[in-house]
Amino acid sequence: MKGFKPDIQVLNNTTVKVSIIVARWNSFITEKLLNSAKSTLIENGLSANHIQIMYVPGCFELPYAAKYSLAQADAAIVIGCLIQGDTPHFEYIAQACAHGTMQVSLETLKPCVFAVLTVLNETQALERTDENRVGDKGKEAALSLIQLLNLK
Ligand code: RBF
Question: In the 3-class helix/strand/coil scheme, how is 119-134 assigned residue by residue?
């Protein structure tokens, strides 16, 4: 099967605390990703009061806030949307954000999943918030996080 395999995943340990860090840039996209990530966690067994939401300005700040929040939380989802502009900024921010997020996960030994869109335009971004188009990347990130939490 191509792409994400949408397994039904029920969280084994519902006492875990999950932090969701959301970039405010392109909030018309990041709010959609946040809502689907949050509702997917709840549908799969996590109670709403075990989810902490934290906002940062843009994708570049996501790894810092993820590490900060993981001092309290057991796992994190970083949410952002990078839309390519006329300069190479996009590449630098995307690289730093992806590497930084992986680094945080390995340093803390806590799952930190990546729901950051790196797209060429708004249409591509919207397609990636919709299950009936390319896919709902907020939901996919939440299901990925549950799979990682269930490894423990
Ligand atoms: N942050 C995003 O989350 N998405 C973007 O598409 C985005 N584009 C940016 C383009 C430029 C030219 C700059 C300077 C910043 C951009 N940022 C974007 C913000 C970035 O992630 C960060 O918040 C700021 O650079 C402050 O550290």
Answer: ECCHHHHHHCEECCCC
Question: Which domain, by its residues, includes 35?
Answer: 22-149
Domain count, the chain: 1
Does ligand 1 lie within 6 Å of residue 88's CB atom? no
Q: Answer for the pair 82, 90: CB distance below 8 angstroms, yes or no.
A: yes
65 CB less than 6 Å from ligand 1?
A: no
Q: Is the pTM of this model over 0.85?
A: yes
109 within some domain: yes
Q: Is residue 100 part of a domain?
A: yes
pLDDT in tens, the chain (152 residues): 577 765 667 888 889 999 999 999 999 999 999 999 999 999 999 999 999 999 999 999 999 999 999 999 999 999 999 999 889 999 999 999 999 999 999 999 999 999 999 999 999 999 999 999 999 999 999 999 999 999 98
**Residue from 24, 89, 99, 152 carrying the catalytic annotation:** 89
- In a domain, residue 11? The reply is no
For residue 14, being part of any structural domain is answered with no
Q: Report the 10 Å Cβ neighbour count for 62.
A: 31
